[in-house]
Amino acid sequence: MNPVIDIVLEAGLRYTETIEPGVAGRPVRFCRLLADGETPVGELEVHSFRWRFGAVAVDAEGIGGVEVQPPFRRRGHMGRLLRQALAGMSQRVDVAVVSDGIRGVYEKFGFTTCVAEGFLEIRVRDVERAADAAADAAAAVADGAAGPGSARVRPGSADDLPAMVDLYNAAHARRPWTHERRADWNRLVPRTTWRPGSEIRVAEVAGEPVGYAILAGRSFGDGYFGLTVEEMAARDAEAARCLLADVARSAWELRVSDFRVREPSDGVVGRLARHLGCAYHQEFPSSGGMMAAILNRADLLAALEPELRRRDGGAATGAAMDDLVGGELIPDDRLLVRLLLGYSCATETTIAQRHRATCAAWFPGGATPELPMPYAHVLDRY
Question: pTM of the entire structure?
């Protein structure tokens, strides 16, 4: 395939970029270093998507699959490759991300960890008690018969994906770090010999999907022998309760006393789980993990100004925005991207007195009415 970029970096070393088909037919940009003609030195992938900073989504690109061939390691080639790739990305987008950064490496290129890893741990007995209470309430009203508006759970299939996309986007549309899912989204794990694949369960009322759960099949040799729900979206608490009860029954069949749900604690599912009684496990790594870097500060802030105005109710002055764009306010781009995404909040850093009220509104941190918790669902990670 003919490269769209072909640059001689030094004698015997070339940098190329080619655009090739990726997952589900979406193009992926492959950035490569080649020695002495076509000898592979290293390569990485660049993925394009829309990425949320709250109510506003921006074009972004993500780096993945970084690799240097063994004979060429420890000679600075990874740095050359990343710098060339980032220079090209900065011509197309204003922010770059890494979904699983190597500890102590990507900081050298302007990246910072800005999303925590978290999951709910729910006890089967707590879900059963809630289900029993709901059944008793229904019996008191209608002699135990399920009403016409009761949610029921059934096995799902790929045919349910468009409705699932709508439910997901409704649940997480303003959540920082999330991707906007298109109608043709399908990142389910396929079934293979050693991997059961994704299992879908759909809650519906009168034939209309009102929630879904995607369960992770266990691979041979998995260290965790329980039950994990990769994601669960619900229109309301009743749909979430119905799905949790169904998953709890599966956990009971596996003879496990609790199960994991990979959802943020401030969503519909998370709030219900907290009401039932659960643990929320969250890890804030000092380095690595899910990372981001601002490539073009002024352009990114211009795109995000409507989101900042939403957060502060339009009360901020133009001077504050000018100082933010110019770098007098929050000069460190690494801190700025953490603040914009809600990983950090303004009270955790030093702000000039005249801008403290504005920054408190702009950067409240996640899990607040103004800014939901930043979260990355595993099925959207490239």
Answer: 0.90
